[in-house]
Specification:
Elements lengths: L2 H20 L7 H58 L6 H4 L9 H15 L3 H6 L6 H50 L1 H6 L1 H11 L25
Length: 230
């Protein structure tokens, strides 16, 4: 959640707190108060979900994909490609299948490359085994590719869930602010008679300024004094 969105969300929650404590004395907003409370509770719940999803994704999923990519590329693809260029040098077109993607390549590129490489070397598996590779080296490479593909799919699903939570949160904040505006209009006659009530309400529902030091103002450059024509 961006900083401004967080500040706006806080006003919906604070507005909910206000109407919960004051609703009995403000019968004209009883229905609106219940509506604002629902929005406030939804904002709180979705904010928590969004925070948890973002933290878990940033900490765990990216690290897992990085490990899977490194394992597939360094442990399997580079070894198979290096040996294959010698063992299969007379096989037409094999050089393309033995190309290893760059370290920065996305997961789906590495997976596709691994599957193409495994398919290309299987007919010559005996040559690799005789050269010292494990008898199931091709299956091990395929399994590493599948593990990376699975991690990437899970990350994509998590990202989609997080995006959905963020959309729902934005809707809840917008609905909450709309209800606050209506309550504000309904309570104008009350505010005219009770300045304390008006201050309390506006303090709860006003979107605060961004925290931090104010921007530095540039010093105005004074124009040079006019020259004496004499």
């Amino acid at each position: 959640m961006r900083e401004r969105e967080r500040r706006v969300a806080r006003t919906v929650e604070q507005g909910g707190t206000f109407v919960r404590s004051r609703a009995d004395g403000l019968p004209e907003i009883a229905t609106l108060a219940r509506r604002l409370l629902r929005h406030a509770e939804r904002v709180t719940a979705l904010s928590s979900q969004e925070y948890s999803a973002t933290r878990n994704a940033s900490r765990g999923e990216a690290a897992l994909i990085a490990r899977r990519k490194a394992d597939l590329r360094e442990t399997h693809l580079k070894r198979i490609a290096k040996a294959g260029r010698k063992l299969m040098r007379n096989v037409p077109g094999v050089a393309r299948a033995l190309a290893v993607p760059a370290k920065s390549a996305p997961a789906d590129t590495l997976v596709a490359s691994a599957r193409a490489m495994v398919k290309a070397v299987r007919p010559a598996r005996k040559l690799f085994v005789e050269a010292g590779f494990a008898p199931d080296f091709d299956k091990a490479c395929a399994n590493a590719a599948n593990a990376l593909a699975h991690a990437a799919r899970e990350s994509g699903s998590s990202a989609a869930r997080t995006a959905r939570v963020r959309r729902d949160l934005a809707d809840a904040i917008r609905d909450g602010r709309a209800t606050i505006e209506v309550i504000d209009a309904v309570l104008q006659p009350r505010f005219a008679l009770d300045s304390g009530l008006a201050i309390e309400w506006r303090s709860a529902t006003r979107v605060g300024r961004r925290a931090g030091r104010p921007p530095r103002r540039r010093a105005r450059v004074q124009p040079p004094p006019p020259t004496d024509p004499s």
